[in-house]
């Protein structure tokens, strides 16, 4: 596998924006690993016993994790559909496409395990999102490298913001727990770490897309605009069903 550029070594404009906006508010929806608060309890061994989540917290996690699982399913299908036409025309991109797919598959596996463990209902629109992601991946792959990368840029921009919102909410919970002198449960501790890691890997994909001429897609604005609207709509619907 080809060596990968460290995330901070070269930031694309969009990735930079996602990370830089939080200079004014460090737990904004676009907080980054460099500036997010680092509660001490995230790195300390925690008791397996914890205070039960409130009803509102459970509802938030049910919606968030259901969307996360559906989104990672879609990501794996997009890359699966894009890879054959892209790597046929541009063989040098095979390691990159495999790297991004492998990370998405790992994310999908993680959220599958979380939903199963906590008996969270997956979205009933699984078949719809599967078809939509496959069509989107195949269509942009056939359009060419630039369109495929523009698709990745658009999707990862929305997903990056989506995960940032979850990190912001979870860190607020951690701060509240610490403020009350209570113990942070191991599962919540791990969830914060995992969603941060997954968020960072999604933004890495965005950076790779821009580096591979996503903005040269034609028509760039129309294509990325439609995909981003579609992502926001899919997130909204999946939270509910």
Written overview of the protein:
This protein is mostly helical and 241 residues long. It contains 7 helices and no strands. Helix 2 (55-89) runs antiparallel to helix 5 (145-179), helix 5 packs antiparallel against helix 6 (186-211) and helix 5 (145-179) crosses helix 7. The radius of gyration is 18 Å and the shape is elongated. 36% of the residues are buried.
Based on CA atoms alone, the radius of gyration comes out at: 18 Å
Uncertain regions spanning at least 5 consecutive residues:
1-31
Q: What structural category do the secondary elements indicate?
A: mainly alpha
User: Percent helix among the residues?
Assistant: 55-70%
Largest sheet: none
| Mean pLDDT across every amino acid position | 84
What spatial form do the alpha-carbon principal axes imply?
elongated
How far is it from the N-terminal to the C-terminal residue, by CA? 39 Å
* H/E element sequence: HHHHHHH
Proportion of residues in β-strands? under 5%
Number of strands: 0
> How many helical elements?
7
Please summarize what this structure is.
The protein has 241 residues and is an all-alpha fold. Helix content is 70%, strand content 0%.
